[in-house]
From TrEMBL:
Cleaved signal peptide residues: 1-22
Species, as recorded: Paraglaciecola mesophila
InterPro entries, A to Z: DUF1223, Thioredoxin-like_sf
Residue ranges the record marks as coiled coil: none
The protein's name: DUF1223 domain-containing protein
Keywords: Signal
Length: 259
């Protein structure tokens, strides 16, 4: 029987908790209430010799108690390095296009790796050892997510009850499956012979335009990647891909279907 993830979008959901919760019934609740969570996107490639140091820096966030609560890292592997000898198993043309879209909109100056995008804007502070900037002036509304073994329910509410939802700007809902503790032995290319340890790798990503429909159905995440763990990140953006709210949390391995 085909399994699906069910996305439920509601403008009137009010969540009651402000922490990640895993109930005894096997349900995980994520909410943005009372929090301002920063989305850190990293564009990387296993074919780029400059990327492993950046990835090692990102890896450390897995042990940070604030991860998922104040920071959600997501590492998108691009494919434009694949012709140099090593076909990155996590690379996607869609991820390369995502980075190029940021350039077209003026959010980033150029396309390169490793590249860092904080809250949809280029950030070069990593190269000089600066801390991640936390700017949330654009955050609004409440995002609540319920994750079960076969479904994800998403609800986004506008805190301003006077907002005219019929004329609201276009929004996009993003859902990403993140791989944690993934090891790859690179056999060719600039990183030949290296065993790369990677966290927060985007294994699957779907961006759904807000159609105004109360329910949207998409296939459940499937992967053939052998990771030590998995997490799900969900964020709402405006038409410029600026995050309005972000939530994320780890999920049991058996909730991810193998291809």
């Amino acid at each position: 029987m085909k399994r699906i993830i069910l996305l439920s979008f509601s403008l009137f959901f009010i969540c009651k908790t402000n922490i990640i919760q895993a109930s005894e019934s096997g349900v995980i609740h994520l909410t943005s209430e009372g929090k301002n969570t920063t989305l850190l996107e990293v564009f990387s490639s296993q074919g780029c010799s400059s990327c492993p140091p950046a990835q090692r820096w990102v890896n450390k966030f897995l042990d940070d108690p604030n991860v998922w609560h104040t920071l959600v890292p997501a590492v998108f592997h691009v494919d434009y390095w694949d012709d140099l000898g090593w076909a990155d198993p996590f690379a996607s043309k869609a991820f390369s296009q995502r980075q190029r879209h940021y350039k077209r909109t003026g959010n980033v100056q150029s396309v390169y790796t490793p590249a860092f995008v904080v809250e949809s804007r280029e950030w070069k502070g990593w190269f000089s050892g600066k801390p991640i900037p936390y700017i949330h002036s654009h955050h609004k509304g409440q995002l609540a997510v319920t994750i079960q073994d076969a479904s994800i329910d998403i609800a986004y509410s506008l805190t301003d009850i006077g907002t005219n939802t019929t004329s609201a700007p276009m929004r996009y809902y993003n859902v990403a499956l993140l791989g944690l503790g993934v090891t790859t032995l690179v056999k060719r290319g600039e990183n030949k012979g290296k065993a790369l340890e990677e966290n927060f790798i985007v294994l699957e990503h779907q961006q759904i335009e807000d159609s105004g429909a109360p329910f949207i159905q998409i296939p459940i995440f499937k992967t053939d990647i052998d990771a030590k763990g998995f997490a799900v990140a969900v964020w709402v953006t405006d038409s410029d891909l600026t995050p309005l709210q972000v939530v994320a949390g780890e999920v049991p391995n058996n909730w991810v279907v193998k291809k």
